[in-house]
Amino acid sequence: MVEIEWREEAGRLRASAASEAEWNATVAASLVRDSDKVAVDVGCGGGGMAKALAEAMPAGTTVVAIDADPDVLEQAREHTAGAVRCELASMDDGAEPLRKAIDAPADLIWASASVHHAADQQSAVDALASLLAPGGRLALAEGGLPTRSLPWDLGVGEPGLELRLDLAQDRWFAAMRDSLPGTVPMPYGWTDALTRAGLTDVTTRSILSESSAPLSAEQRDRLIAGFQHRVDRLNPDAVPTHGHGHGHGHVEVQEWLSREDLAVWARLLDPESEQYLGRRTDLAVLSVRSIHVGQALR
Ligand SMILES: C[S@@+](CC[C@H](N)C(=O)[O-])C[C@H]1O[C@@H](n2cnc3c(N)ncnc32)[C@H](O)[C@@H]1O
């Protein structure tokens, strides 16, 4: 059983909203059209994209940020500081609560890493598609490639540590989906989901972002906090704590990572250890995120 307590993620989501501001601004500018009147961010987290949309949209238009968790939504409300209308609604409740929250046909709906938390992902995509104005676009930021940050051989433990973390996270993700009440498999890709929802001109654009070594102190600290979060989530011995940098509670003990790898991670993430990642000059960030877009008929 893997359940996510979103309120425990609120601080971390707010931090990502701030650190991803540049990426969000670039993507928002590429998606918004001059004629757009209403843009929506569904499963908005800390409100990073909602804020970027508000900055990219023409003057006098509306941006609505929607999330199912009140504590997360509060972070979005603070982050967007009045530029965006924030509404509580869940994709698990069908189209109507979302339609009420938005209150007008949407020209652009953005949903990043949120539809994969809906119990029935195709129903969620169908619901979002039904909220579009004629010619409106639904953009789903889902998937891409696993981020690469560490050298293959770290000089501690078995080489390939980061690959094994990705694999463990993939198994954790499958268990998370299995644990959602009323979960429905979606055994096809996001472009098919958009097409099945009746959208046309379905395309995918993948964006590569790179911060090469050596990272700045800020980039390095963010990377290490990200690893800490991912390892804690996969470590049955980690005591779930509230607030920034930690989060997912475990109901039953399951070994996602080997004891050996957990011991290596403990050394890499301990500032007192000689192997602390923060001492390395060869950390980098290479990431590829995919955006799948479909358009409603005119
Ligand atoms: C992984 S976070 C992504 C946040 C943000 N979109 C981003 O890309 O950084 C998933 C977000 O979706 C929200 N969420 C999860 N299930 C949802 C649902 N059924 N309806 C609406 N929002 C949901 C969570 O509260 C969380 O804010």
TrEMBL record:
<dbReference type="GO" id="GO:0008168">
    <property type="term" value="F:methyltransferase activity"/>
</dbReference>
<feature type="domain" description="Methyltransferase type 12">
    <location>
        <begin position="40"/>
        <end position="138"/>
    </location>
</feature>
<dbReference type="InterPro" id="IPR029063">
    <property type="entry name" value="SAM-dependent_MTases_sf"/>
</dbReference>
<keyword id="KW-0949">S-adenosyl-L-methionine</keyword>
<dbReference type="InterPro" id="IPR013217">
    <property type="entry name" value="Methyltransf_12"/>
</dbReference>
<dbReference type="GO" id="GO:0032259">
    <property type="term" value="P:methylation"/>
</dbReference>
<keyword id="KW-0808">Transferase</keyword>
<dbReference type="Pfam" id="PF08242">
    <property type="entry name" value="Methyltransf_12"/>
</dbReference>
<protein>
    <submittedName>
        <fullName>Methyltransferase family protein</fullName>
    </submittedName>
</protein>
<keyword id="KW-0489">Methyltransferase</keyword>
